[in-house]
């Protein structure tokens, strides 16, 4: 498979490193990174030289028209994702997109329509989004112990993304804007952790949320909080912050048999998990420890952990492990957080449909704070 990276910014390096390491870690043979494309020709050339990529340029369509891309990794700012993904799917290429996949539910529905057109035309390309934290061993271990009943029912969950982004971070023109980034810290940062929340707990039913622009000069929020009721009865809290000096990414699941916690920052291993069983259920901690020992601690999350099974699926003509439906479920939760925060009303799953302003944009009917251009310096 010939692979093109679109977008030569910082995250492109993580993709390039993972692509080069695929075969050595159980991925399919014959995957080659052949092109780097960026609107900045010099930047494309620099990344190509750093990773030994034979071709670089500024025009993705030229690569697609030449039949030179079997897989396209979209590593651009979010506003470019939809157009690039639709073009690649139309050319028969698989698409791997960084988060957030697109800017809104309307865009993810347009992406789904493009995927259906490709399938109907007999084209091989399939879409997937990077949500690399789903692929650490601990999440699979937790889901397994929930699915087989060992942990009993999940009752309470906490999901926290407390990060710090200084004012200069938002000097990049596309950051802190709904039209180019999709949203603020909810879409740009917290989506990693609450995607994991959804991956573990399944469908959600109701959201009540608040958001604020507390300290950064942006059009978007820099903090949001939410209460979420899941279909299985679990009650969860979600906090997303870009103004927290002590940074952490944290998930806690309180079940009938144990508390299972994960705390890390931008990636985790088995060492970042803690299991605290209730009295008399020490077997839960023993089962967890035995599985860690069995896998010899090889539980790191990251791009490589996701891309190995993803490329196996591409090579074998199977659906990749993260589907468009997975992507939409997490984006619908993000849209519900914005809608509840901006309207002051609870949001039920399925409420946000075509014609709703929050279907078209996470900004929906408008923020409760004025645009930056209307605020005195």
TrEMBL record:
Gfo/Idh/MocA-like oxidoreductase N-terminal domain location: 2-117
SUPFAM superfamilies: Glyceraldehyde-3-phosphate dehydrogenase-like, C-terminal domain, NAD(P)-binding Rossmann-fold domains
Coiled coil: none
GFO/IDH/MocA-like oxidoreductase domain boundaries: 141-259
The organism's place on the tree of life at top rank: Bacteria
Protein keywords: NAD
Protein name, UniProt field: Gfo/Idh/MocA family oxidoreductase
Organism: Isoptericola luteus
Lineage: Bacteria, Bacillati, Actinomycetota, Actinomycetes, Micrococcales
